[in-house]
Write a structure and sequence with these properties.
260 residues; alpha/beta; 5-stranded parallel sheet; 8 helices; 12 strands; elongated
């Protein structure tokens, strides 16, 4: 029997059209697809009728299987089939725990291939016309997790809050209030913040505020995971805020003209 292969595929941020041609080709060849909660179910339609499709998703507070159990499945299916696909939301190498699965597969004698995906950290803000960098506003951006494996707020948030960079925070809604407190202590109370839930999908929901009020807005609107938090002056470039700024300048111009 030909050596089994583990193929890790990035499913993109949620919109089923935001997936690569190579990913589609590998899904078509798959004998097994182990898919996550953040991978759009529509992508399973690319698989053959004979392909086994198994949900192994993990979300905050609800794990279908532990990572150790998923690793065991990869090996077990690899002993019986040629191509085992792990379909992960976003990109497998961006908080996707891909390395653990790669090491498991290699120890079991399996080949490994990775098909990168479009990361939600970049695509979701872009879908709302929020650039992560803009000349004259900022020169860099951070992508960080909100919580560590111990459940604590990542210490990288402290470093990011000191920077002028755009900060994109993933898996952080359960720590939103504490994270915003950190930004406040670094003088960022009035810094714009956007939170986008279920980005690029039909269930997308977005709120915009500032560091000092975004927690209350998110609570009122019932915003939760999965969501992307964007902290930075680039949030002001969202079309709704640009339109408001243009209208305000227009009104000011009319008022000054009348005064003259």
């Amino acid at each position: 029997m030909k050596q089994a292969k583990l193929v890790l595929i990035g499913a993109g941020p949620g919109d089923p059209e935001l997936i690569t041609i190579k990913a589609i080709r590998m899904l078509e060849q798959a004998d097994i697809i182990l898919y996550d909660a953040l991978a759009n179910d529509e992508l399973l339609n690319y698989a053959s009728a004979a392909c086994i499709k198994r949900f192994v998703g993990k979300r905050y507070g609800c794990h279908a299987l532990s990572q150790e159990e998923i690793n065991t499945l990869i090996v077990e299916y690899g002993q019986k089939h040629k191509i085992v696909v792990r379909l992960k939301g976003g990109d497998p190498f961006v908080f996707g725990r891909a390395q653990e699965e790669i090491e498991t597969a290699r120890l079991a004698g399996m080949e490994v291939e990775l098909v990168p995906g479009i990361s939600s950290a970049i695509a979701v803000p872009a879908s709302q016309m929020i650039p992560l960098t803009c000349r004259g506003i900022n020169e860099s951006f951070w992508v960080t997790t909100g919580t560590t494996r111990t459940g604590e707020i990542s210490t990288d948030i402290q470093l990011a809050a000191k920077s002028s960079a755009t900060v994109i925070i993933l898996m952080a809604m359960s720590k939103l209030e504490g994270i915003m407190d950190i930004f406040r202590t670094h003088g960022k109370s009035d810094t714009p913040v956007a939170i986008i839930q279920n980005g690029t999908t039909k269930d997308e929901k977005m709120i915009i505020g500032t560091v000092k009020d975004i927690f209350f807005k998110a609570t009122y609107e019932g915003i939760g995971n999965p969501a992307i938090i964007i902290v930075g002056e680039v949030v002001k470039l969202h079309p709704s805020l640009l339109k408001s700024a243009i209208n305000e300048r227009t009104r000011d111009g009319i008022f000054q003209k009348k005064s003259l």
